[in-house]
Amino acid sequence: MRAWVQRVLSIREDEVRAVLIATAYGFCIFLSYYILRPVRDEISSADRGNLQIIWTAVFFVMLLAVPAYSALVSRYSRGVFIPLANRFFASNLAVFFAALHLLPEVWRPWVDRVFYVWISVFALFVVTVFWGFIADLFRNEQGKRLFGIIAVGSSLGGIAGSALTVRLAEAINPFTLLIIAMVPLEAAARLARKLHRESGRESTALRKEGAEPIRGTAMSGIRVIRESPYLQKIAGYLALMTFASTVLYFQQAELIGDAFTDDRAARTAFYAKIDLAVNLITILTQGLLTAHIIRKIGIGLSLAFMPAVAFLGFFTLGLYPLLAVLVGLQVLYRSGRYAITKPSREVLFTVVSREQRYKSKSFIDAAVYRGGDLVSGWIYVGLAALGLSLGAIALVAAPVMVVWAGTGILLGRDQEKRAAAEEPPGPGAPT
After folding, report:
1. Residues 15-31, mean pLDDT to the nearest whole number
2. How far, in Å, CA of 381 to CA of 399, rounded?
3. What does the angle CA 46 – CA 49 – CA 50 come to, to the nearest 5 degrees?
């Protein structure tokens, strides 16, 4: 049975321990996030008239957060700064819980908006740190085999968090979800430290580097992107992806807000049900297909897969702008993005330097991601102000997906060239 599992999952004996720890780490991160995500998304429907303004605030907070994070990376080793980042966000949840309980009700809309900004920063940073850490530990060849397996832990965490929120959202005070979400964040901090120590063991297949802080300054992430066409393509790919995600998100907030006009608990539960469906489909794909798809069709076509799905989805939504169609597209789009696009994107970072993995990756995943949200959000609002309906905006978005797909194919070619030039093959390759 052990041999069969290793063959089906494409995992070697000396990788098992590290993969299990990494998978558990991802589970805890996404368990915490998916407990909180429906709370954030409910705010988007309740305050959808101000959503583009809130996203603008998110972007500027990101501009401050990225240099602070880079400075932390330059000062401490990953075994210190990764647990520290998780515990920082956990302590923030305690502050929000106290604010929601102690401040007068009249302050609630502003607490909601600050929380929305915070969780948008939280979601990108903890996920970026997690995947940056994983890309730092595993080589390119390992990434193609193992990142889909590790992502299964993330999806299991998403399923558990979504199911928990579905069950509790209408049964307890939603504020209590913030305290519950602190527990897996502390567990993630401990697992990150354990995984860091695992890379120092002689019997492990992980890269042995990583004990020292990463060189450079707080602004190094911007510099290395400016000097690297490869990283610029990654940033462009992500910006195009945020356009698709933003259009879907605004349309989701609009349609669900109209369907559940006065019941915030019901909206939270409905969002959690969407998350649950996404994660169920994602985990089936990750567990059985992701590694085989990436190895069979390559990184480029894997990156182009979701743009193709999004093109067909936006075209369909343009013809039939209904809540059922949008929910179906969201589930298909997000599950494919997490199961195929996300592992493929993380493989891109296995062929860059450690400084680029942590600092440029944090800038791309944070500032570029939220910058894309900002621009795309105002584009959506502008198109709506011109009188375009939800369906018409979907039809406008469809051709952009072709550009997104083309960028993914070009990135795949660049990644394969860099992998062939920079990484020695085989399990005994030097580090």
Report:
1. 90
2. 19
3. 95
Sign (positive/negative) of CA torsion 301, 306, 307, 310? positive
Our CA angle for 71, 153, 119, nearest 5°, is: 45
Q: For 63-120, write each residue's pLDDT tens digit.
A: 787 777 777 777 777 778 888 888 999 999 999 989 888 888 888 888 888 998 898 8
Q: What is the dihedral of CA 33, 37, 43, 45, to 10 degrees?
A: 160
Within 199-263, residue ranges assigned H as helices are 220-226, 229-259
Distance between CA 300 and CA 409 in Å, rounded? 4
The answer to whether the beta carbons of residues 159 and 283 sit under 8 Å apart is yes
pLDDT band at 218 (very low <50, low <70, confident <90, very high): very low
Class at the top of the CATH hierarchy for domain 11-422? mainly alpha
Both tokens of 334, joined, read 């997000």
Angle at alpha carbon of residue 53, lines to 360 and 95, rounded to 5°: 75
**Tokens describing residue 298:** 């390559």
Contacts of 230 (CB under 8 A, 6+ apart): 352, 411, 414, 415, 418
Helix (H, G, I), strand (E, B) or coil at 430: coil
Q: What values do phi and psi take at 210, rounded to 5? A: 125, 0
- Concatenated DSSP letters of 299-321: HHHHHHHHHHHHHHHHHHHHH--
DSSP state letter for 105:
G
Give the torsion sign (CA, 183, 330, 262, 47). Answer: positive
pTM for this structure? 0.67
Domain edges within the chain: 11-422
Question: Among 296, 293, 375, which Cα is nearest to 342's?
Answer: 293
